Structures are given as C-alpha cells and as structure tokens.
Queue: 2 jobs
Job 1
Amino acid sequence: MYLRSFLFLIAFFISTNAFAQTAADSVFIRKIFDEALTNGQSYKNLDYLSNKIGGRLSGSLEAEKAVQWSRQLMESYGFDKVYLQEVMVPHWVRGAKEKASIQTGKTKVEVPICALGGSVSTGKTALTANIIEVKTLDELKALGRSKVQGKIIFFNRPMDPRHVQTFIAYGEAGDQRRQGPSEAAKLGAVGVIVRSLNLFQDDFPHTGSLRYDESVPKIPAAAISTNGADKLSQMLKTDQNLKFSFEMHCQTLPDVKSYNVIGELRGSEKPNEIIAVGGHLDSWDLADGAHDDGTGCTQSIEVLRLFKSMNYRPKRTIRAVMFMNEENGVRGGRKYAELAKTNNESHVAAIESDAGGFTPRGFGIEGQPDKIKALQNWKPLLAPYGLHDIGPGHAGTDIGPLGEADKNATLIGFLPDSQRYFQYHHASNDTFDKVNKRELELGGASMAALVYLLDKYGLDGGK
Amino acid sequence: MYLRSFLFLIAFFISTNAFAQTAADSVFIRKIFDEALTNGQSYKNLDYLSNKIGGRLSGSLEAEKAVQWSRQLMESYGFDKVYLQEVMVPHWVRGAKEKASIQTGKTKVEVPICALGGSVSTGKTALTANIIEVKTLDELKALGRSKVQGKIIFFNRPMDPRHVQTFIAYGEAGDQRRQGPSEAAKLGAVGVIVRSLNLFQDDFPHTGSLRYDESVPKIPAAAISTNGADKLSQMLKTDQNLKFSFEMHCQTLPDVKSYNVIGELRGSEKPNEIIAVGGHLDSWDLADGAHDDGTGCTQSIEVLRLFKSMNYRPKRTIRAVMFMNEENGVRGGRKYAELAKTNNESHVAAIESDAGGFTPRGFGIEGQPDKIKALQNWKPLLAPYGLHDIGPGHAGTDIGPLGEADKNATLIGFLPDSQRYFQYHHASNDTFDKVNKRELELGGASMAALVYLLDKYGLDGGK
C-alpha cells in the first residue's frame, strides 16, 4: 500500500460519519424537490388566493377572507396546530380611481397615477399647481421654501438599472416615495408626484407606503408611471410653467381587527425551539398581489405540507406564519415579535419569502458571523438546486421585529431571481398569470430544504 | 516581523500581478454589464426580428428577410467585416392548419395537434385509425407487428418534471419525437401522435424535427398538446377501440439557397485565432421564435456591439454567427465547420446561445479537462453576475460540427435559467412578449464577459 492510499484511507475513516450524514441529507433534499416538482401545491393555492380572493389590503374584506382561507387550508392539511394572533391594523382606502393631467397652453395630456399608500386625498376636487422636478431630497432642500411654496414636487430619479440585484436599486430610490412627501411639505409644497419604482418603461403606476412626518402638514402624494414621468419631464423642459392637476379620494378609516395566521408542526425532541417560515398575507389593492406576497404565503404553507407528505417529523417546531399588514404598518410583524417575547419563545431562525415567486438563487442572512458561516457550510447540499447566493443580506420586513425581540434568532430572506420583480411590484399587473409554476414550487422546496437542515442541525454547531 | 506576515508578503508579491490583472478584469466586466443594462440593444433588435419579420423556418421568405436584416444590422454597427456563407437548406412547409379528433361512440372531441417538422402529409383527406398508447420505444417493439399493423401509435411519456435543469428532461423524452415515427413504421403503423415536449399542462402543441429512417415508409407524425394527450389517454382507458383522426397537408419542397450571416471584429494581435459566438437565425413557423432562437442571434450581435461601444479592440478575431437551419437540418452549422476547415481557421472557442433569453446561470462546456478547468478559474469574475454553473455540459447543435472539424476548439453553451423554456419551445406561444428585457440583456453581457476573458487570456494558460 502506497503512502497516499494509506493517508486517503485514514482521511476516509475520519470523515465517514460526516459523509454518511451528508449523503442522507442529499437524498432527503432530493426527495423534497421531487415532491415539490411533481405534486407541489403552491401554484394551485396561489391561484385561489389571487383569483378567488384577490387584492387584500389590511382592513379590507378580502384580507379577512384571506385569513379564513389560509387558516382553513392549513387545517385541511392536518398541521398539528393552526391559530390566529389578533392585531389591530390600519385601514386606508383608495376611493374612486385617481386622475391626473398635464396642462400646457391649450394641450392637456392625461397621465396614469395612483395614490401612495397612506396618502391624504386632494379634497373633493382636483389639486392644480405648478410642478417642479427634482432628482433627490437634497436637490429639493437646496431649492428652499421660496421656490417650493405652493408647488407640487415631482421626484423623478429612476431606479439604477445597473444593479444586477434589483432590490439594491429599489433601496436606493425608495427615499423619494417614503420621505419625499413630508420633506416637500416642510418647504410648503402642496402635493407630491413620485416616479414609479419600476425598472421598466410602461404605463403602470406603482403604489407603496409613504411615511408622513407628524410635525408637518400631510399633503397628497401619488406615483406616476415611468412613461408618464418621462412625458412630464419632457414637457417641463419646454414649459416650466405648465400646470399639473391630480385628483384622489383616498382616506384613512379607523383601525380594524385582523390577524396573523399560524400553522405548526410540533417538534418531537425540542418543541420549544422554533423555526418560522413566512410571508405576508396582506397585499396592495391594485392587483392580486400574486408575487407580493401571495407567493410567500403559499410557499410557507407548502414547506409544512411537504414535510407532512413525506412523513417527516421535525425535531424542532416548524411554523408557517402569514403576517398581516406588511405593506402599510408592519403591525403583524410587530405583534408576532411581541408575543414571542411575552411567551418566552426561542427562535432558531425565521425565514421570510417576500421577493416574488421566481427561480431560487439563495438566501440573504442577518445574524452572527458564525451562524452565517454555518449556513454557508450547507452550500454543497443546496447548490444543485441553483442556491448559490448564501451570505449576508436583508432578511425581511415582517421578521425584522423578531430579530429585535429574540437576539438569538437568525433572520433569513429567501432570494429568488430579482430581474422581473420590479415590473410588477405594487402595480396592477402583479397578477397570477405572471407566476410560473415551476419557479414557484422550486421556491417552496428551497425553503423546505433549508428548514430541514436547520431542524436537523440547528445553528449552534450541530446540537 | 513574524513569520506569517513574511510568508504573506512573499505570497503577496508573487501574486500582485495576478491581482492587478483580476482587478482590471473585474472593472472591465462591470463596464460590460453597465452598458448592457443601460443601453443594451438585444431587446430592441429582438422586437424587430420577432414582430416585423416573425417565424422564419428554413427556406421561407421570412428566413431570407432575417438574413438581410441581420446583415444590415451588423453593417450599421460598423463591424469590421460582415458577410454571408451560402448554404442549401431544406424547405418543408406546413400547409393548411392541422386538424385532429377523437371519436368514441357518438362523441367527437377535437384536440390540438401540429405536424412534426419534416413529416409527410396524411394525403388529401384525414387519416383515421385505431390508436395504441405506449410510453417508450421498447414498449412499442414489445407489441410487435401483429398489434401495431394499421394502427396509429401514441407516444405519451411526459417530460420528467423532477429535473431542475429542464434540458435533461427534454433529452430523455426526445426519442419519442425523433425516432418514434420510423420505429412505428417498421412495425406497420400508419401514423404517429407524440405528446408535446412541454413541462406544463396547456393546449399548445409543440413541433420539432423527426428523423425518418430511409429504409421504412414515411408515415405522418404530429405532436398533440399536453392537455390533449391526457384527454386521449383518459378516453383510451374507457374505449380501447376509439378512432383517432388527423389531417395534415405538410410537404417537403426542393432545397433552397440560404445563408449563415457573420459579423467580425478583427483581432489586433492574433487575427487568425477566432472566438465565435452565435445562435440560429431560423425558427419554427408556429410563432416568432423569440426565445428559440431570436435570443441567441440578437445576443451574439450584442456581444460585438458592446465591445465596439466600449472601444475595446480585441486581440483575437471575434465573430457573431447567425447559423441557418438549426431546427431541421443543421446545414448552416455543418457549412460553417466545413468552411472553417477549408480555410484552415483556428477557433479558440465557439459559444452558442440557444436555450432562451432567461436570466444567466452559467456555461456548459465540451472540451478538454484542462480547458474546462481554465474556464472554471474565472468563476470569481463571473459569479457576481449570477454565473455559477460553469462545467461540463452540452454546448450547442450549431457548433457541434465545428468541434469535429477543429479539435482544438472548445465548445461552450450559454446556460440561462431553464424553468420557463419548455413552456414555449417550438410552440405558437414562443413570442416576444414572453421575453424580459433585463434577463435578455444580461445574457448578452454574460457572453461578452466570457468572450473578453477568452480573448485576453486564451485557453492555453494565459498566452
């Protein structure tokens, strides 16, 4: 026997146990994907949620229907426990469809807008004023009160198309929508129009929440489609004194009682250690909310269904959480964290799927470096399914508060391919027909594979 | 100075050159993607090819228009040389739209079919006969002549949905379409119906080439939609004696003169070393052929346009090749290889994009192990763009003959995400609206990044 062979044998015996473990894991993960790709039910369930229930903004009848539907669905799957967490949510309504037009001389051009979530109305009639285009909040501030007073401010900085990961571009451009209205109001503006956070040129306005600063007047704010924004910008170049006119009848009604919806498979060995996987049940009102975030809900339920169908009994407690009110308040996420603290719950990890039902690419992690490392060690088991991007990243809005409440919880965001997301996000074209069955089912399987590893090994070195 | 620091410094000086090289490459590749994501023209060009020219089966007027269009487009970009390679191609025509129905008792159910490419017609009227369902060629052979004689054979083995890489499923199921008709004819069958090679349940029949064995009679063969196949299979369970009837008026006309279309940027240092990047200009006749393979053509032209726009002067000669007749003959691919041999050309590599315009995932390579290794060494430069899957794999049908003619040429297939491809492939829904601009442009940039590295370093250890 040559030395190299001998050394190889030694190495072999040392690592046999690890190999055996890995081989079993590889087989189990393959079975998860086989089940999802042959009998996956995310697509069928998303069809129901999108087409039979539809858009489900917090406080709406549809949101209530979605609560009941998801509870019944999880009960029908025979999960060990299905329950609701009561939470009061905001109730903003859009009212009659918005209208907007640009007037220059005798020309009047209509452009597609929609109210930003939470905006006040323009009153009973349209608001008409001169409009000033800016690209940044700093540019607005530099104008000063004298130039802004009485005007509408038009934020027109496009998302940067150069980011391959489009959520970075969304993050960079989002200040216009979130802070823009109150920053403009501070300088006396009467209204705000924001270029839609959309990477494509089209006629869909994209809504989304604004954040009013309570110390300044609330002024009406709307998103304009990317084509509309270009049109407006072009017309402003030839007539700085053109008038912009828009009419919105949105209002905020009293808070409404709603719920997070939770299903559980109880852990056989460590029932008090929880691995949560979730999405948000509410959506904007303009469309089905198929990608945002019907996807995350149906995939999360699917994770538990996959385990049930494979007769896999987890060591730890696995939870599917449908958070309520991600879009305009995060009340469900905060309530979940509050109750986790009250009940002294211990979360190993929480995984959120809120980036669309596209082909899986990996997971973004918020957590201690050793835990990120532990997750990265599973790359060889996950790479065969296209899950290569495993590293630090934003995890999810709903699970953020849990990270504050339970410092030991590792927060994980499911990362699907991001190229198409911002064509549909918060717009009336976020509909079921934009979802591909295989891409969606692969997402549920990817999360199930990770939950399986988290359940089996934890994140504290295999305990 | 501690030993470790010293060793580190040594290592640093040794590798500084490599680091500097890598940093410059990283910057250049970033610029390629920036240009593609801000000013990419693949999408605009594909719009023209798909919507102004349309389906372009070999020998058709549209194929001729596509030749002229792609030549003019490359000339308009100012490539160093644009030229045609004459090649005779088959001229098969579908004729009047196909019809098919299932008859059981007094019930007649129409089902969607389309002739397989190259099929003979059913004659002037419909062909009606009993039909036998089989799943495999072996199952057919086991039936024997006594059972098959005078019947239509129905191949109904679905693509296996469990393969994450869907081309594997296509490869496994393809024998039914390619060999099925002649294998059935050998046993006296009068016609063949093949389940569409489609991973989704819908009403689109998917065409594609069959291979007639010249030693047996040519019998008419069609694809049936996946829903239609399920319907037929279900009805056969209750009535084995039902009649299947289909009518097709396709025919093969004399060969037609056509062309490969080639554009070049001439190498500044090693003009005789060629790096080719290509797709096929012909498509099936049922749709635009946007994904198959308008994508590959416009992306290949884009690779050269990107270099021109960045004032990058390649060391080696870079070629964009629009191959003619991939779908039903590979005559263009064979002509290209033949002329490469005649002209003593030396190809470093040939890259083919013929898997759709979806988000890039990597490259599949046919070549010597050391060259595959050399390509894998570039992973750190390519991974930031989602290009993780770099390893052995099928490269492309058009460049296959070149691999035979020039044994030193490394063949590379561009690998986009494969989940959606077989919903559109060879069917009437392979249209421009199924293409996402960002996904398409990322493909052109991915190929340009690889061509840049191949041009700069070659595959023989950095020469």
Job 2
Amino acid sequence: MIETQQNKNENRNQNRQNHRSKRRNHPPKHKDKLKVIPIGGLGEIGKNMTVFEYKDEMIIVDCGLKFPDDEMYGIDIVLPDFSYIVENADKLKGLFITHGHEDHIGGIVYLVKKLGITVPIYATKFTMGLIDKKLVEHRLTTKVDRQIVKAGDRVQKGSFEVEFIRVNHSIADSVALYIKTPAATVLHTGDFKIDYHPIDGEIMDLQRIAKLGSQGIDLLMADSTNVEEAGFTPSESSVGATFYNLFRGCKNRIIITTFASNVHRVQQIIDAAASYKRKVIINGRSMENMVEVASDLGYLKIPKNILIDIKDMKSYKDSELVIITTGSQGEPMAALGRMAHGEHRFLNIKKEDTVIISASPVPGNEKMVSEVINKLVDLGSEVVYKKFADIHVSGHARQEELKLVQTLVKPKFFLPVHGEARMLVHHAALAEGVGTDKRNIFIAENGSIVEVDHRSCKITGKVQAEPVLVDGLGVGDIGNIVLNDRKRLSEDGLFIVVVTMHKGKAISGPDIISRGFVYVRESEELINTARDEVKKALLACEEKGVVDWSSIKNEIRESLFRYLYSQTNRKPMILPILMEV
Amino acid sequence: MIETQQNKNENRNQNRQNHRSKRRNHPPKHKDKLKVIPIGGLGEIGKNMTVFEYKDEMIIVDCGLKFPDDEMYGIDIVLPDFSYIVENADKLKGLFITHGHEDHIGGIVYLVKKLGITVPIYATKFTMGLIDKKLVEHRLTTKVDRQIVKAGDRVQKGSFEVEFIRVNHSIADSVALYIKTPAATVLHTGDFKIDYHPIDGEIMDLQRIAKLGSQGIDLLMADSTNVEEAGFTPSESSVGATFYNLFRGCKNRIIITTFASNVHRVQQIIDAAASYKRKVIINGRSMENMVEVASDLGYLKIPKNILIDIKDMKSYKDSELVIITTGSQGEPMAALGRMAHGEHRFLNIKKEDTVIISASPVPGNEKMVSEVINKLVDLGSEVVYKKFADIHVSGHARQEELKLVQTLVKPKFFLPVHGEARMLVHHAALAEGVGTDKRNIFIAENGSIVEVDHRSCKITGKVQAEPVLVDGLGVGDIGNIVLNDRKRLSEDGLFIVVVTMHKGKAISGPDIISRGFVYVRESEELINTARDEVKKALLACEEKGVVDWSSIKNEIRESLFRYLYSQTNRKPMILPILMEV
C-alpha cells in the first residue's frame, strides 16, 4: 500500500485512538489483574510451584516435590496440591520450568497423570533431558508437548509472554523467567546465584535484568534460600581449585561424592583427574544417569578413554584412580553409604583411600552424613569434608547478591519465595533495607492469591494448597489417622488380643500376639499375667451382663493398658479382636 | 624415742632398703599396670564413663546417659553397659564426677540400682546438688555415700589419689581429675574450655596443670568435642555483652531460652534484666528446678524482688519483662515449643515479643529448632538466633585450647576421649602436630582395655560395652528384633487377618484389621479383595491337604503380600492369626 496523506491521517487517528484506548484501559479493571498463586515453596524448602492466572488463561512455573519430614512415617515424597490446577485445567497454557532439580521438576509426572490432558512443557535443553528421563520411566512421553527453549528466548502463549533469562545455579542450564501480561510484569528468579566464573562461561544475564528493571517490573519473586547468609556465595570454580590442591601429590585412591545433578562439579572432578592422569569411574545409579544425560546433551565434556568400568579398577594403581559416586547426603543405601558399611559390591574402603565429600548436608541430614564420615574414618581412610576444605559452594544467592538483584530490578512489589517462614521475613527486611517500601512487600503462604497490576498488589484470598503425601502407589490417600497410627506403633509397638466368642461367651483364647513391644522370649510372665487380666475383664463383663462387643473391647483395652503401663511404663497400641463362631 | 647413732644408722639402712626396694619395684610388673577402660563416650557424643582399675581396686569417672538416635524407635534414653562394673563391684572404691551435665551424671541412678551396694560419690557442690535431685526422685538417697569436694581437693581411696582441678565449661563447678596410682598418673580433662573471663571469676587452673605436667603425667585423656573447630572458644561473658545490646532500647517483651544447666548464662540474663529494670519470670520445669538448686547453693545471685510469677505477668508492661524459659532445642513439649504452637498455658506469642534463642542446636536437633523459629516468626514475633547475633558460645575447647593443654601437660601417652570417630582421629592428629609421638597416641573404643604405666601404654583387650536401651521401665530389654518391628510398623503399618478354625477348617472370618496402612474408609474395595485373597489361600490349602498352621499362615501371608504390594507398593507387617475352637 502506498502511504498517502489521507492514509497517514487515518493511521495517525488510528494510533491516537489506540493510544487513548490503551490509556483508557489502564489500569485494568479488577477482573483483569494478574493472579499469582504460589502452590508450594512458601514456608518451606521444596515442592516449588506457582500458578499465574490472567483472565481465562493460566501458566504454571515449576512443579517440584519435597522429601518427607521425620514425622511423616513411611512417606516416600510430598507433592504440591494440584486441586486448583485440576479445577482450572481448561485454562492451562503451559508449564514453564526454571531448572532440573527435583524440587522443581519432581512433581511433573504426577501432575501430567492427574490432568489427563496433553501439557505443553517449556524448558531448556538440559532441564528437558532430565524431565524426559522421568516421562519415559512413567510412560508419559505422549502426554506432553515438549518445547525446548534456550536462555534469551521469548514464548508467547495467549496473553502471557515468557522470556527465559540465564542465571547461575548448582545445576546447568538454569533460567529465571520474565513474565509479561497486559495486567502486570513479573520477574521470577527461580533458584539462582551470581557466578562470575561459571564452569560453562555463562554468567547470569545481569544486563538483561537491569534493562527489564529500568523498563519497569511490577512484581519480583526471588529465591530466599540463602538470605540468612552474609556476603556473596563463592564461584563454583573455587571448588575446582581445591580439587587440584587435593589431587596434587596424592598417592591415594580418590573417592569423591557430590550431588549427581551438579554437572559442573562433576566436570571439575573429571578435569582434575585428567590433569593428574587418573582414570575416572562413575558409580551409583543417579550419578550414572546424570553423566549419561549430561554428556549426551553436551553439558559434560569427557576426555576420550578416561572413563573405566568399576570392574576394571584392579588393573590400575591407587594413584591412577578417581571414583565419582553418590551418597553425599549420607544415605545408607547410596554408593558411599554402602562403601562405609562394607556393603559395596566392588569397592572396599582401605587405608590408602582419600574420600572427598563435596557437598553440605541438606538440613535434616546432618547426622546421616556424620555417621558415614565416622564409619569411613573407622575404616582408616582419610576423609575430607567441608569443615576442613573449601570443597563445596552453595547454588543459592546470599545477601549481597540478593541486594544486587533488588537494586537492578527495582520492583514495584516484592514477594519473597522459596524459603521457610523466617527466610521470607528476612528477605522482606533485606528488600526494605535497600529501599523497597515496606507496604509493597508481601509475605504470602502456599495457596495465597496475590493479585497484581501496574499500580497495586494485594493478597485477596486463598486456594487449597495442603501437602499431598505419596506412599508407594498411593497419592494423597494417607492422612493424619494413618500417620498417627504409624507413630504410635513406632514408639511402643503393638499388643493384640484375640478371643473367640459364641453366644456372648468367650470359648477360645485369649490369644496374645505382640510386636515391637517387649522381647517376647524374656517376657513370658508379663504375657501370661496379661492373659489373666483379659480373662478377668471378660469375667467381669459376663457378671455385669455386658454383651455388646464394643464395651467388651473397651474393658479389655483398659485393663490391659493399666497392667502393661504399670509393668513397663509403655503404651503399646492395644487391639482386642473378638471373633464370633 | 631418742634418736641414737645406732638408730640413725638403722634408719638410714631402712631408708636405703626402702629406696632400693622402690627402685626394684619400678617399673611395676605387668599385673600392676593401671587399666583404663572407657565404657562410654568414645566413638560417640554422650554416656561418658571410664573405669580405672589398679590391682584389686577400681574407681569410675562419670556415669552419663545419651539421647537415642532416630532409628531407636520409642527408646527414651541410652545407658553405658554396666556389666564390667557389676562383675567387679567388690573392687569399687568410688565414683568421681567431673560436672553435672546429663551425659556425665544421667546414668548414676541406674548404676546405683544395678549395683545394690552403697556407692561413694565424689563431686563438687553444684554437681552434687544436681545428683541429689535425681537420687531423691528415684528414692536412692540412702544408697550412696555423698562426698562433696571442691577444686583443689585431693582424695585418697586405696591406691588412688584423685585431685580435682578447676576447669571452665557451660555448667558451673566443673573439674578435671588428676589420678595418681603407683602404676601411672593420668589427667582426665572432663569437658572443658578455657575462659579468661568466666562469670564466676574462676579461670581454669592452668598453673596447676602445668605443674603436674612438669612433674610428669603418663596419660592424658582430653575432650574432643570441638576439635574440628579452629581457634579459641569465646568467653561466656561475650554473650552477656550481646544481651546488653539486645536489651538496650528494647520496648518488647523479651523471651529468652537457653540450656537450663547453663547457670552462668542465666545469671547474665538476670543481670541484664536488672540493669534495664525488667522483672524476670522463670518458666519450664527444668529451668525452675535448676534455678532453685543453683540459687539455694549460691551459684546464682538473684537480686531481691526481681522474680515474679508468670501469672502476675499482666501487671507489667512488655518493656518490664524478661521470661527465661526451656525449649532451646526446639523440643515441641518444652515451654518455648508450646508457646510457638500456641499451646502454652500462660503466654501467647505476639508481635511485641522478642524471642532470643541463646543456644546452638545439638546435632540432630537442627530441624526441630528451625521449626520453632518458623512458627515464632509466623506469629509475628522477632526472633534472634545464633546466625544473626553472638548469643551463644560453646562449652568445649577448640583447637588452640587443646594445643595449649597438650603443651602444658606434655603427656607420655595420649588418649582422645569424648568424641565421634572422626573427632578422635582429628584430636590425635592435633596432638601429633604439637609434638606427641604418633606411637604414643591411642584411638580406643568403648570397652577397650588400655594398660598404662610410667613406661608403656597399650590396648590389651576389650570388655563388653554395648549401648543399653531404656524404654519406660525396661533397661536393656529392647533389642534389634523389637526395634526392627517398630521400624517396619512405622513405615507401612499393619495388616491383621484372623480366622477361626475347627478341625482344620475355617469356620469364621477372615476378619481383617489394619492400622497405619491405608485410610480404611476409602479402601473398602482393597480390604474386600484382600479378604477374598485369604479365602482363596485357605481353599488352596484345604485342596492341597495342608493342615499345619504355620504352612497355612505362610500361604496367607504370601498371597496377601503379593496382592497388597501390587495394589499399593507398600509392605505392611502381615499378621495371620488362626484360632482353634
């Protein structure tokens, strides 16, 4: 089309109208706000998941799992509550993943199963490689629409524009997300640190964040994990320097454990091994899987002929070997745990071993890690752990990094995420300290509905977001009753009394079975007297004319409770069973 | 007698003979060596106890308890193994206690009960005060011969001379022991640190230790708890300075928790409260007990009229109150835990509260402490904990202090004690680093018999020294079978099947009862099908002519296991019960 004056005028009018209508539409009405709903990761470390909802469209950021607390007897994993997402499944435009740690991707297969629809998943290559492993294992590859992205990409899904921004973290290919909607713009950092000497050379894209910040970011959501730590988290490459120091002049066989997903750590171990002409053995299932995925996708550069099989270990001298293995958290069933307990199939710890634990215990694992170190020391090996060498750095930003991000972003509103209650509060104080208005900082909880636009932000309600417990094949079928029973059984065991009844009279028994209560062989007298107590209770019932079974059972339970407690100070679960013939 | 020349000559001869015979007797023959047998506290933190045996005489140093590991389901406490002491009870000359912490005195009442003889106990005044509380509670006051000593005292019991030497520690009135026998001299540090500004003004008696060292100490036994920490543990008084800083200008109600036994810490809180004109409430059973004992015995100086009852709290402004309370380890049932969970009888946490946690989590308690902090933050209070303020110092010597003691003592032989395996090894390396010959350092374990005299030291054997588990009234009656059952029950619960039999045929049932396995109300189908599976198994037995009960039970167990595992991936404990009528 040739642009004429008339056309120009029309265009100008059009533009003006557009401009006006834009201005008229701003700020959007209440119903047009962006809803941000953290489903998991607030008030806890783990199971990170956030819903972003605008009008009738919804995207999800991350879908992680969490490992159970000590009090969750027998529970395998804990998931976020998918109820709100299931209710709004028709709105779902896609699942955007920041990185490949379990607390960000571990819930995906459960969500996909639950939704029963094809879910578009956006993730960087390495993250997608790890998700793929899970999809294959759960036979769900056909249930998702895999979209591999890279840092710098922008994806438009309905009203949502999502930009992937490079960050550093303890796993390769991590990104933050810039989410743009007509109502508001959001920067979600995901898990991050700032590493000026990252192993892959890709420093967190601070320029882009600064640019977006200067254009105006309405809501910042940032990782609170390390907000209690002063200073700046050291670079991953600082650990490599320690490895070189430890390898130099070492004649021992070297066994190193770290988090399998920390591919850059593994790279540095392999590089150090190559420098000192050592062969490398990869040991432990998750380490083997991770090395396979990472080298297939090009995230791990392995020199030719450096890897050997653990079965060929004997062909090499101690000084020619490095074993990279699992078990950095002291897990008794992981490879290092089995070595420490003398139960590893191919490797016995000996005096000429140097064991390097290149990790920190995750809170709650401190005692397990100590236990493994003690066992390894008992076996005569030299153990190098964090207290005595700089062999681990965190993947999360400390205070100075968090302040830098606040300063680059200068958000209107701030929502600290990924952290326990005290961390969120400290993160809020940190933001206030660098100039964010206290009234614009929000401490939310799982399920909070945070409504935000260019001008305002508030918490307007709450959706269901309780932890969902997984035990075996059961997802969410275990509640407090079952857990309380397990707790009671774990403390004082079980005392079963069986009586066969006929026409209201006991005709056989009482038979007694106990487990986890006393050592039965040495407690004959106790058991015999308990049997007499039951007989007395039955007789009393008969004499009093008590015939309904629940009353009889109560009598038995109470008389046994009194007797057993008086003799042992223990309170086993007492189960009276009456059988009618 | 008038001393004549003849007499003089005789005396001289006598002296010479004595002298000769002394020399002839040195070194003593093998049977005259001093046996040092650590019964607890090696390869672990807790239940400290050491036997010293010379010829037919024996003394014991400390008799502590330990708190159970996570895997010790339902166990209340763990004791040292008293078998060797019971076997040699006739040799026992006395029990010598270094200080009043539970891991040094908590086993005494159990030992006294077990021995059934009157045991002489030597302890300083405050330590004895704490022992007395326990003796009264267990009605054992008549079973012991209490001997109160003070630092500087020497006690001769048979061939043993024991000297009490002032040390600093996180409880008042702590001592090290210098033990002199004809065979060898030993310095046992007990738990200690070096505090140049102790609250009671009594600095560890380094002069005396140096003097004994210069006279020659054969064996040094020293506390390894903090050997992994570089530097010098700060003075207890440094914490007081922090309290003043926190109190100054504070308008909030102040709630402080610390270890009840740390009387000097409590003193500093009271002093700070007095300075800022605040009243003090003592809350929590163990805190109330400890303050009572400590002030009765003069170890705590409480200004007049400063203590008030918690029920009178409402008569004071927030800025006029300090509450000293229990629960520094995050124990949910202790006072602070109940406050955090909104279950305290007299105190509700509010925004205008400053809660100070003047303690570090004991290893294993990290998560419980975090949980309490998070709850308190959730309730809006300001929580001050170690990460953000210098409000706790350890009671144990760090590396520089340990080196100083090595240097003052210059022992012939060294036995690191009170520590997990890795700590003992690090302590050995530390001693070697300051000049002790590696061959003269011994890493022993609980039960090791260390034989020492002026010239030699070696580990010659082992006595029984397994941990003894206490559950309720039962001491040592819980073994691996019971613990394994509790563990299994805690993981997947329990599934009971009861069938009444008559002449080899099932005539009633199968009845099914499950606990801690599935939520029964939502699992009717599962339970019904399980019942069918049992019926099938019974039928199969009948058809195959299987009549013996153990085979029938096995069939039931196996078919149920298969079915339940296939449906749930869980492995409950399956208990088939057959009743004959």
